[in-house]
Amino acid sequence: MARDPLDVLHDEVVSCRRCPRLVSWREEVAAHPRASFAGEQYWGRPLPGFGDPGASIVVVGLAPAAHGGNRTGRVFTGDRSGDWLWAAMWRAGLANQPQSASLGDGLVALGAWVTAAVKCAPPANRPAPEERDRCLPYLEREIRLLPRARVLVALGAFAYETCARMLGLRPRPAFRHGLEVKVATGQWLVCSFHPSQQNTFTGRLTAEMLDAVLGRARALAEPAEPLS
After folding, report:
1. Correct CATH for 5-39+47-220 of 3.30.430.20, 3.50.50.60, 3.40.50.720, 3.40.470.10
2. Residue 15's pLDDT band (boundaries 50, 70, 90)?
3. For the whole model, what pTM was predicted?
């Protein structure tokens, strides 16, 4: 029996070693856990997307956090950014619970898929352009394998630029929170500031702002028939 294409992609992503700098960094972090996570076994590998294969909304972040997803093995899990995102997803009816702490916590995405532009944790949260480009085919395949996806929510300028490149968006409007662009495929690209501590602690991104973006994404995602 043929394997599910998403499962095949999952295995390819997890085994990827295309970017020497990222491989070295993610494994170095995994070998030397933060004191607060002493004794935990870190994932230390690339992170595939997570969610509902029938998703109409795809949320795209920058990359896994060194002590978040790189530790837990699931994107936006076990860090402050994930706390913010999944709480907002829950309020929007896109998740069954507002917490995302570990693989076994029972989290289920509802009509949504969550992924990242770059699948490995990068030093200082800054992937190099060539690392982004090596990873882009994974994101392209991921989106193609989600036939009901109508709205991509880009969290931050890096995710927006990556999605715009993938979708062939020309001209490319400047990134801003709340930006909405309809692309040639009929899909929508909607932007939010990234729920990083830098943005949430300073008030640059509030819960109300993120809620508004996800609410708009839900509105744009209806109806959710497969794209032709």
Report:
1. 3.40.470.10
2. very high
3. 0.95
